[in-house]
Design a protein that fits this description.
heterodimer; A: alpha+beta; two-stranded antiparallel ribbon; 10 strands; globular; B: mainly alpha; 3-stranded antiparallel sheet; 13 helices; 3 strands
Chain lengths: 211, 286
């Protein structure tokens, strides 16, 4: 297993504003569309159904046909950036995660939005049916049929990203610069909101201290 | 002249995408700072060095969109912003090479080769951009691939600085160089080097033309591949550079040196770069 730092850009919209971004850190974590659309489901049923909706087919739809599953996908697109092969005589092209996150957060510079920094656990093989680990879709050795959006450097989380794995959120304006958010006290600089309950990935790594 | 394939891009969409790329060059900095802060890297100068920024390439993409849509003036403005951007000055090799090429095209920098590495200094013909500014990077020694790539990327910048003679001596064996033999062997047969040799000698004209044809074909194929990726192309997010900056620098140097390019250019993409090079050939920084 690996621990991957990732970014997530979410554009501000009527259903997702400062209050929802704040709640991601303090309450909900980052939720998939499936979790949002089934928020009223009884816990027992949600436990069963949430496991059933994870499949290789559903992941393929999420990556390659997102518009058809935008309101129901159990997956969550994060970005970790990527390097793309650019021919044997050209330098490989680097597509940074931050740019992709800002692009999504602002709808290409059209709106304000939010950039989250988080970490997830990814496996070295593809296991789209298993909750708990994210899929490193950007790795073409594992997902050669998902090359179309390779440039977005996608790491795909499942169902939700736990709030304790989200380090901070930064609100940005359409100009991609930090913007005023309701959690920033008057007169204070426009900085990221840090998650006080964040658990650093070092805690989950396999580096064991000597006793 | 517009880059073929961009005719369906609306002026509004181009303006919006250019604005995003120009903004993101600065916006990235704030997100990087938050990342560095949360990783407990606190000194701002260290942060800038620590995080090799994409800012220079974001501005490069904005300039490419302007040039591709035949707005030379806006492209020049963005290029000037690019070379004046502090974030553009960290020294990872790709950033360095791009920074040097754009500065040399604008006539602000001279890019010169030495046996130990490659440097940028203010051009004598340039205006006072940043008095005392100079930057130097040693030839990479750990990777022959990295070294030959860097040399090939910087040869055009040296050529457009009118300093290709130094480069030829370093590559061609006139002076002892810290570059490995395998690197020199690869660079000597590269189209970039053949073109540079051709710029400096009458007998090199044929080699030069062959080199130009190879680079032009490579660029044309690359743009065709980018266009075929319709979703990205339509949304003005081509999956790679749409201007071949080294080819542009070589053509600009060739035009200034009196080379007859028009008869040699075969592709519409090549004609676009030639047209852009003609603008750069007569451009003078203010």
């Amino acid at each position: 297993m690996q621990l991957n730092w990732c970014y997530k850009g979410i554009a501000e919209n009527p259903a997702f504003g400062d209050a929802e971004a704040y709640a991601v850190l303090t309450d909900t974590g980052i939720l998939s569309a499936w979790m949002l659309s089934n928020s009223g489901m009884a816990l027992r049923q949600a436990n069963v159904d949430s496991q059933s909706v994870l499949s290789a087919d559903a992941l393929d739809d999420h990556v390659n046909d997102y518009s058809s599953v935008a309101r129901s996908t159990p997956y969550i697109s994060l970005t970790a950036g990527c390097i793309e092969f650019n021919g044997s005589i050209s330098a490989p092209a680097r597509y940074p995660a931050l740019r992709t996150a800002l692009d999504f957060a602002t709808n290409g510079g059209a709106t304000s939005g939010y950039v989250f920094r988080c970490w997830v656990i990814t496996g070295l093989k593809s296991t789209p049916e298993l909750p708990g680990t994210a899929e490193e879709v950007r790795d073409l050795n594992l997902f050669s049929d998902m090359y179309t959006y390779h440039r977005e450097g996608e790491v795909t989380a499942k169902l939700f990203v736990p709030r304790r794995q989200i380090q901070w959120v930064l609100k940005v304006g359409p100009d991609t610069k930090p913007a005023k958010a309701t959690w920033i006290p008057k007169g204070r600089p426009k900085r990221a909101l840090l998650n006080q309950n964040f658990v650093h990935p070092d805690r989950a790594s396999n580096v064991i201290k000597a006793l | 002249m517009r880059l073929p394939g961009t005719e369906e891009w609306s002026a509004q969409a181009i303006a919006k995408r250019i604005a995003f790329e120009r903004n993101v060059a600065d916006g990235v900095r704030y997100v990087l700072r938050e990342t560095a802060r949360s990783d407990r890297i606190t000194q701002s100068q260290r942060i800038d060095r620590f995080v090799a920024s994409d800012a220079i390439f974001a501005l490069g993409r904005a300039a490419e969109l302007a040039f591709a849509s035949d707005d030379f003036g806006l492209g020049i403005t963005i290029c000037s912003q690019l070379v004046g951007n502090q974030l553009a000055r960290p020294t990872p090799p790709m950033q360095f090479a791009f920074f040097a090429t754009v500065g040399a095209l604008l006539g602000l920098f001279d890019v010169y080769f030495t046996s130990a590495g490659v440097g940028i200094r203010l051009a004598q013909s340039g205006v006072a951009h940043d008095p005392g500014f100079q930057q130097f990077t040693a030839w990479p020694f750990a990777s022959a691939v990295d070294a030959s790539r860097l040399v090939r990327l910087l040869l055009p910048a040296a050529a457009v600085s009118n300093l290709s003679g130094d480069a030829r001596r370093v590559i061609g064996g006139g002076v002892e160089s810290s570059l490995k033999r395998s690197v020199l062997d690869e660079v000597v047969v590269s189209p970039e080097f053949r073109l540079v040799v051709g710029l400096d000698s009458a007998r090199g004209q044929m080699q030069s033309m062959l080199g130009l044809a190879e680079l032009e074909a490579r660029y044309s194929q690359r743009v065709s591949r980018l266009r075929s990726d319709e979703a990205y192309w339509r949304s003005l997010r081509p999956r790679g550079s749409i201007v071949d900056w080294p080819l542009l620098a070589l053509m600009t140097a060739g035009i200034r040196g009196g080379m007859q390019l028009s008869d040699q250019i075969r592709t519409s993409e090549g004609k676009f770069i030639e047209s852009l090079a003609r603008n750069f050939a007569v451009f003078r920084p203010r």
